[in-house]
Amino acid sequence: MNVPDYNKAVKTNGRMSRLMVIFKKEVRDHLRDRRTLLLALIYPLLAPLLVAGGLYLAGTTIQSERTAVAFDVVVVGADNSPLLIEHLEAHDISIVVKTSLIEAKKLVLDGHIPVGLVIPENAEGEKRFTVQMLMNLSRVSNLRLTARLERVINILNAELTKERLVEAGLEKDFAKPIKIKDVSVTRLPNIAVFFYNMMPPLIIFMIFLGGVHLAIDTTVGERERGSLEPLLLSPVERWILLLAKSKAAVLFTAITSFINIAAFYVFCGWAASLSKHLDQPPAWYMFIAMFVISIPLMAIAVALQMSIAVITRSMKEAQIYLGLLPLVPALPGMIMVFKPISPGAWDVAIPVFGQMLLLGRLALSESVTIAQVLTATVSTSIAAALIFWLAARWFKREKMFLLG
Amino acid sequence: MIKMQGLTKTFGEGKTKVTALDGLSLDASNGRVTGLIGPNGAGKTTAFRIVYGLLSADSGHASVDGIDVGSERMEAQRALGVLPDVRGLYPRLTAREHIRYFGELHGADGSALEDDIDDLIKRLGMEDFADRRAKGFSRGQELKVALGRALVHRPKNLILDEPTNGLDVMSSRSVRDLIKEMRDDGHCILISSHIMSEVAVLCDDLVIIANGHAIAAGTPDELRQQTGADDIEEVFVRAVIKEQGAAI
What we know:
A: mainly alpha, D-Maltodextrin-Binding Protein, domain 2, four-stranded mixed sheet
C-alpha cells in the first residue's frame, strides 16, 4: 500500500476562505434537509394565504352588503302593517307569512330563514308601534342580513318621520339638527387597512422563524450528533465558525422572508382585486422596501437564535425556547393591529420596534424617510452585533461541548 | 511529538468537584505508537481534549511538535490529526464531502486535495460508499470516514481514541496495518484502547493512567519486567490494583 506524504506542508488559509468553506458546507447540507426547506419555502406562504383569505371574505361581505341580495323574512302578524310589508318587499325582502310565533321562531332557530319579524296586532292604524326581530346570530351570515332588515325598516321610519313633520308644518329635517358626512383622511378608507396592518407582525414572526432550524441544527444539533468536537479540532477561530453558521442561517432567513413578503404582495393583491370595494395593497416597490428594511431584523433574529441555541443543553430545549422567540418581537405589532399607536421621532431607534413601525407605514403605503430607515438600521444592527458577540463568547466556553 | 507536562484539570465546584487530571505527564515520540491506557474515568479523554485544544488545563502544559497548545491552539491543531471516540458525521453529506470539508478547513483545495481524497478513499477501502450520504453508515464505515477526515491534511501527529471500536476482524486488522505504516513513516501516534491484545500488538510505548495521573510507563517489555506479569492485560490489572490500594 502506498503511504501518502503526510509531511507535505498544507498551506494555511485566511479567515475569509475558512468562513466561506463552513458557509458553503452549511448551505449545501441544509439544502438537502427537508425540514429546512419546508420552513424556508412552504411556511412563509401560510400567513399571506390567511390574510388574503380574510381580505377576500371581507371583500365579498362588503360586496354582498352593497348589492341588494334578496332574502326571506318570516313575519308573524303581516296583516297588521301592510305598509311595512309593502316596503320590505320593495327592498327585495321576501315575506314568509306565519301565524304561529313558535313556528316562526323554529324556522329562524333551525337556520331555514335568517331573521323573523313580529308585528303586533295594535300596529294597524297606530302611529307608533314596536316590532320584534327574531334573530339567530349564531350564524355569521345572519348578522349581515339582520342588520340589513333593520336598515330597511329604518328607511321607512325616516320616510314616515319626514311626512309627519311636513304634515305638522315643520321642515322635513327638523328632527335631524346635525347631519354627518364622512371624509376619510387615509388613502385606504375601508376594512383592507385592518388586514394590511397585519402584515408587519407576521413578516417579523416569519423572520424570527426562518433560520431557526438551521441555528439549532448547526450548534446544539452538532453537539448532540457528536460532530461539533471534530469540527472544533479544525484550525478555525470559534467566532469565525459561529459567524459562518450565522451567515448560512441569515441566507435561509432572507429566502424565507423574500417568499413571505412576495406572497403577501401577490395573494393580497389577488384578494383585493376581486372586490371593487377594497383598496389594493401597496405597490410592489413598497414590498421591496419592506424586504430591505427587514435585513437588520434577519441579523438580529439569527444572533438571538444562535445565542439561545449555544447555551441550551439539548435540541429539544432549544426548540422550546426558539419556538417561543418569534412571538416576542411580533407581539407589539399584533397589538398595534387593534390599537395603532402614533410613533414619536425617536421610536424608530428602538431595535426591532423601529423596523416594525417602518413596516407598518409601508404596509399602508405611507412614506418613510431615509433618516428613519438609517436610524432603525443602525440601532438594530448594533444590537445584533452585541448579541452575536455574546453568542460567540458563549460558544468559546468549554461548557459548549460538555453540556448535554 | 506530543508532550504533556503536569496536566491538571478539575470540573465542577464544591461537592460536585471532580478531578479528571492530577499532574499527568507523558511523551509520545515520532516514529512510535504510544498507548494511553486506563480504566474508565481515568482521564484519557480529558487529556486528549487538552492536547487537541478543546479544553484548557488548570495547570501544566501540552505541546504538539513543540507548539504550545494553550497559547497557539490553531498552529498545534494544524500539526495534529484526531480520531475522537464519538465519530460525529453529518448524515446529509457523503463520505467524500466529509473528507473534502475537513481538508478545506485545513487550507487544502483544488486538484491536490481531490487527489489526496481519492488516495485516502482507496487506502481506507471506502470506494463502495465514498459517494453515499452518511445516514445509515455502519460503525465501520463511520470510522473510516472519521479516519479519512483526520488524515486529509497530512498531520505529522495522530491521536486515535479507540481506533478499532466496533470494527469487524478484517477492518480492525486493516486499521492496525495503517497505523503501523504511518508509524514506520515517522509519525507520532498516540492511541487509547481497551483492547489489550491490540495494545500489545501495536504499541511501542505504554502509559497506564489512573486517578488522573500516570501510574506506570515504559515499553511493553519494561512493564512486564516491572510488574512480573506475562501479558499486557495482567500488567494493566496489577498496576491499577496497586494504584487503587495506594489510593485507599
